[in-house]
Amino acid sequence: MAGRLFLRSAVRDEWVSCPLDEITWLDRSMLSGNEDLTLHRAPRCAGIRYVHHRWELFSRDTTYQVYLAPDADGTRPGADDVQRTARYVVPVAPASYEARPVVLEEGRWLVSVAAWVLRLRLERPAVSDADPAEPDDDKEETTQAGDFVRMPGASGQAAVAGVRAYFERNATARLAMAYYYQEFILARPAPQSVPMINVIIALNLSGEGAVSDYKKLLQGIIWAERGHARDLAGFLLANGLLTSADLELARRIAAENERNGVCEMARQRLRYHPKGRQLPAANCWAAACCS
């Protein structure tokens, strides 16, 4: 049974429950209400996630260290106080990597990123989890704060090998995911995935649920369960499973499909009706499809 984790920031001055099935990002909005423009947006920031039957504090922040200190008296001290009394320090992360996460223990904690502080409260269930505190995959055993690891999957290199083998067998799935995550591959600020229907039309996929099915299958290969949709892009990119070459090929196919009328036939097949407005060329990328 999972412990319950609650978060309280200066912006959201109330206790908020962190969901088990998605990452809670400690981003610019959460920490500062979008006031501090030096802070990063998701997924290039610190976050909290529930994996391996435990809560973890991790960071993909390439600018700031993340400090974790006990919340001794329940007051909200300044960032300097948190940094001075920190029990754990998660270091700055290189591009496409993250520092080894810190496993959260029961109790109250203070997290500091730059000049901002938020509070955590972890309430353990009555019966403790049977799983060990340390990961049981093939990552290195050291837990020093300076060690960096690839963004984790449930079974380490076995998960990477499984996805790579699947993509080798199913080039359509690989290109669909490259097109879907193109803003992430291009490292655009605050990247967003392409709407699934646009991917289906651009690449003339077989059905409306094709992209969703690929995502579910990949989550099964990597984590042996669903519920990690927000981690999928980071895992695929960090482990070199999607590349700019994949995106270039996917966009070339999309452009050819548009020129040859394949996209229009796909729209008709899916009974997809354009809204009559063409996307700007800068956002359309190689004449993909109408929105």
Task: Give structural notes.
With 291 residues, this protein is α+β, with helices and mostly antiparallel strands. The protein is 34% helix and 18% strand. The protein has a six-stranded antiparallel beta sheet with strand order 2-1-11-10-6-7. A four-stranded antiparallel beta sheet has the order 3-4-5-9. Strands 8-12 form a two-stranded antiparallel ribbon. Helix 3 runs antiparallel to helix 7, helix 4 packs across helix 9 and helix 6 packs across helix 10. The longest helix has 16 residues. The C terminus is likely disordered.
Beta-strand content estimate? 15-25%
Q: How helical, in percent, are the residues?
A: 25-40%
Cα shape: elongated
Q: Which spans have pLDDT < 50 for at least 5 consecutive residues? A: 128-155, 272-291
SS-derived structural category: alpha+beta
Tell me about the largest β-sheet.
6 strands, antiparallel
Query: What's the pLDDT, averaged over the residues?
Result: 79
- The radius of gyration is 21 Å
Q: Tally the helices: what do you get? A: 11
Could you spell the SSE succession in H and E letters? EEEHEEEHEEEEEEHHHHHHHHH
Strand order of the largest sheet: 2-1-11-10-6-7
Number of beta-strand segments: 12
Distance between the termini: 44 Å
